From TrEMBL:
It is found in: Cell membrane. It is a multi-pass membrane protein. PANTHER family: CHLORAMPHENICOL EFFLUX PUMP RV0191 (PTHR43124:SF3), PURINE EFFLUX PUMP PBUE (PTHR43124). Keywords: Cell membrane, Membrane, Transmembrane, Transmembrane helix, Transport. It comes from the Bacteria. InterPro entries: MFS, MFS_dom, MFS_Efflux_Transporters, MFS_trans_sf, Sugar_transporter_CS, Tet-R_TetA/multi-R_MdtG-like. This is MFS transporter. The lineage of its organism: Bacteria, Bacillati, Bacillota, Bacilli, Bacillales. CDD domains: MFS_YfmO_like. It comes from Metabacillus arenae. The chain crosses the membrane at residues 12-31, 43-67, 74-95, 101-127, 148-167, 173-191, 217-239, 251-273, 285-303, 309-332, 344-367, 373-393. The keyword Kinase does not apply. One of its GO terms (molecular function) is transmembrane transporter activity.
Length: 413
């Protein structure tokens, strides 16, 4: 595969997590306006985000299994189309229907179904496309950069679109889903691999055996991924709230400030993906160090948290998270055989979605108790993630492996 072809493939695949992230996160700054326009309660408007996440959490493992059995692209492209249709349903309902709330929810369910089979399939697909682990790590770093880039742009784009028409962010989803479909369909060439012919019963038995044999490090990566997303989205919710309530900053200006720590996360993800190569012990060190930096940031914020101090140390927390994510992706992708890669990485993606869904409501409850408690909980979750990585992830670099260790699950002890 030529260098230019690899770059085109990665750029095309990077559009998938970017579109999926934009399609969800950019609605967050618009939710208060949606609530006013539809004359619904805060709980009802929160369902616009929640139903999307719940559907995705439930269906991501199914999409992983289907991608292992039938192929990554054959699952990803139709799911991108479904996600676009979901956005169109929600946008049309908001535009043309007098009481559109339940149709908007139906559109969000469709979008969740599409997202479940699109973005999470990208991680195992990167592993399929590149035999060289350094290229896999670099590619995953770019994917995490695109994912985080979507989070950086989301609040800015959502707030800017809503300045024209409140439901315009819904129509953004089918527009960019269509672009992503074209990029993936025409540019990404999937290497030919033998498709699995397992029955569901055989699949369940195989999955049980994998988790029984290698569950220790797999569960550790699942847990760290969940904790990272829990802290990230919880803190973003907290930051959004205090910028408006304490510092009286809202609209596009608030979106720009929310983007600052996410930009640090995005840049550090890209650099980490380039630098870690195939050195799995370095990946472990980066995960532990990243979670340590995250914990230290919240210790500092507990001591002092004026606006400048807050944004400065949230930049450090973004660096910690950005350093860790490509390493988690690389360990789980390079550590699993191609035949089970989609299924195992889909469970990892589901755990990350659980963190995304749980963070904002949990932090909303914590904030009602005490602002200081936000820093304690964030620090505690970071420390737990750091010790999980330190104690339970025990990688073996490829040049230290013996032939006997290469089975269904590779490169980990």
């Amino acid at each position: 595969m030529g260098e230019q072809k690899k770059k085109r493939d990665l750029i095309a695949l990077s559009s998938v997590p970017l579109v999926m992230t934009l399609g969800n996160s950019m609605l967050i700054p618009v939710l208060p306006e949606i609530e006013r326009e539809l004359k619904i309660s805060s709980f009802q408007v929160s369902l616009i985000i929640t139903v999307y996440s719940i559907v995705a959490i439930l269906l991501i493992p199914v999409a992983g299994y289907l991608s292992d059995r039938f192929g990554r692209k054959i699952v990803m492209v139709p799911c991108l189309i479904i996600a676009g249709l979901g956005g169109a349903v929600a946008g049309w309902a908001a535009w043309k229907v007098q009481s559109p709330f339940y149709l908007i929810l139906a559109g969000r369910v469709l979008q969740g179904i599409g997202s479940a089979g699109a973005a999470p399939v990208v991680i195992p697909l990167i592993g399929d496309m590149f035999e060289n682990n350094k290229e896999v790590s670099s590619g995953l770093g770019l994917i995490e950069t695109a994912n985080t880039g979507g989070k950086v742009l989301s609040p800015i784009i959502g707030a800017a679109l809503a300045l024209f028409i409140w439901f315009l962010p819904f129509w953004f989803i089918p527009f960019f889903s269509f672009i992503s479909v074209l990029l993936v369909f025409f540019l990404v060439k999937i290497p030919k691999t033998e498709k699995k012919s397992q029955s569901i019963k055989e699949f369940v038995i195989c999955l049980r055996d994998i988790l029984k044999e290698e569950g220790r490090w797999l569960y550790s990566i699942f847990a760290i991924g969940c904790l990272i997303m829990f802290v990230l989205f919880g803190v973003l919710f907290f930051l959004s709230d205090i910028l408006e309530k304490i510092y009286k900053i809202d609209g596009v200006y608030k979106g720009l400030l929310l983007a600052i720590p996410l930009l640090a996360l995005s840049i550090s993800s890209f650099i980490a993906g380039k630098k870690i190569g195939d050195h799995k012990k370095v990946m472990k060190i980066a995960i532990v160090a990243g979670m340590g930096l995250l914990a230290i940031s919240f210790v500092a914020l507990r001591i002092q948290h004026n606006l400048l101090f807050l944004l400065t140390f949230l930049i450090f927390s973004g660096i910690g998270i950005g350093t860790s994510l490509p390493c988690l992706d690389a360990l789980i992708t390079e550590g699993v055989e191609k035949e089970e890669r989609g299924t195992i990485t889909s469970f990892y993606s589901s755990m990350r979605f659980i963190g995304v869904a749980a963070g904002p409501p949990a932090y909303a409850f914590i904030m009602n108790q005490s602002e200081h408690l936000v820093y304690y909980v964030s620090m505690g979750a970071s420390v737990i993630a750091m010790f999980i990585g330190l104690l339970f992830i025990k990688p073996t670099d490829e040049n230290e492996e013996s032939k006997e260790t290469k089975g269904k699950i590779l490169k980990m002890t």
